[in-house]
Amino acid sequence: MQSGFSKLTKKEKINWVVDKLFSNNIEAKKLLEQYHLSNSELQKIHDDFSENTLSNFLLPLGVAPNFLIDGKDLTIPMVVEESSVVAAACNSAKFWYKRGGFKTKIIGTKKTGQVHFLFDGNKKDFIIFFDKIKTKLINSCNDITASMKKRGGGIVSLNVLDKTIEIDNYYQINAEFETVDSMGANFINSCLEQFSKTLVIEFNSDPRFNHNNLEIIMSILSNYTPHCKVIAEVECEIDDLIDKDIKDSSLFAKKFKTAVEIAKKDIPRAVTHNKGIMNGVDSVVIATGNDFRAVEACAHSYASRDGKYKSLTHVEISKNKFKYWIELPISIGTVGGLTNLHPLVNWSLKLLGSPSAVNLMKIIAVSGLAQNFAAIKSLITTGIQKGHMKMHLSNILNLLDADDNERILLVKFFDDKVVSHSLVKNKLKEIRNG
Ligand code: MEV
């Protein structure tokens, strides 16, 4: 146990970590220094994001151009370490650009939070009491809601839910919020904590409850946001699906539909199917400084909303039409949080034309759909490894310390072959042996 670690200076923390936990402390320290932006304003900003920052952890920031979304051209920023994700987005974007692009629709923007509490008295009395103090609860948040109201948001509704069937004496205040362009986590949590304080004050001063107890358990937003939801879709004639890898468009459409149906019935496949969607979703969520853990948790719980985990995308084939869409709850923001603090987040948002939160929801959903399309297209035609391993070739070449000349020769050699680690290794050995 090391107490007071957070009170040490950064230098002391680094020394503590490398001296105690690395066999080669000099090398470990050098690496941290290599990624550290000494004496810069940027480092100061990074240090303040989190506790005990020793250095920075870089991830590639890439872009996927040629996205046509609701008639508008967009280049999407993506932060992701997996080799083929940006390439897949680019391919999908180009494919659908020529077929009318992506269309989107916002289904709702409401978010919720709950005050969870126990109450051991008469339900009817409590519900009457709650209705009476509802306005007081809302007004007690006036200081918190003032600027959100100016921006068009605020508290939308407040209800008490009887949950005593699930847990003895368990009730909730379920509150709905509009948070406009911010994700709104701090706003929602501050309102909820104020609700619980006001609730306790009002309860204690009501003579009806002199012999009852009310115990606040917790007040917290919910990352499950099924009413903050977007749909993104593409549609074209089946004949128009013809492409360099799609020779028979009706066979392709049928196989595509079956692949999505499998992801609706088979959980092991559904998880991988949705993981592919999240490759696209998370990359944009991270690039725009949003909370990818919240978006992930919400997407997967939404995928299980019928009691069984299923695909987040859907396909419909009718007559000669291929219609394919994603329905995704996403809670993100384009103001507050990291958006002004992280220079590259700010850059990414500018690249997207400084979108509102609803526009960013649309872009993120499109990115997820595009990624899923690229994955299924490869899976049911060429197989995934051809493209994947081609992108992975550079990683293998880096691992094997290939120089520029060796790279050129090997990239050319593998142009029409399936890449594997051992094949690359052997081929490099051949080159090195002349
Ligand atoms: C890999 O990151 C994602 C895929 O496995 C998704 C899928 O199988 O649909 C290719």
Description of the molecule:
- Strands 3-8-10-9 form a four-stranded antiparallel sheet.
- The chain has helices at residues 10-21, 25-34, 41-49, 85-97, 123-139, 142-150, 185-204, 249-265, 267-287, 292-303, 343-351, 357-380, 384-399, 404-413, 421-432, and strands spanning 61-69, 72-79, 103-109, 111-119, 154-162, 170-178, 214-221, 228-237, 313-318, 321-329.
- The protein is globular.
- The protein has 434 residues and is of the alpha+beta class.
- It contains 15 helices and ten strands.
- The protein folds into four domains: 5-49, no CATH class; 63-108 and 230-382, 3-hydroxy-3-methylglutaryl-coenzyme A Reductase, Chain A, domain 2 (Alpha-Beta Complex); 111-221, 2-Layer Sandwich (Alpha-Beta Plaits), CATH 3.30.70; 388-432, no CATH class.
- The model has no long low-confidence stretch (mean pLDDT 96).
- The protein binds (R)-mevalonate.
- (R)-mevalonate binds at residues 82, 272-273, 275-276, 279, 375, 379, 384.
Strand-helix topology:
Blueprint: H1 10-21, H2 25-34, H3 41-49, E1 61-69, E2 72-79, H4 85-97, E3 103-109, E4 111-119, H5 123-139, H6 142-150, E5 154-162, E6 170-178, H7 185-204, E7 214-221, E8 228-237, H8 249-265, H9 267-287, H10 292-303, E9 313-318, E10 321-329, H11 343-351, H12 357-380, H13 384-399, H14 404-413, H15 421-432
Antiparallel strand pairs: 1-2, 3-8, 4-6, 4-7, 5-6, 8-10, 9-10
Helix pairs in contact: 1-2, 4-12, 5-7, 8-9, 9-10, 9-12
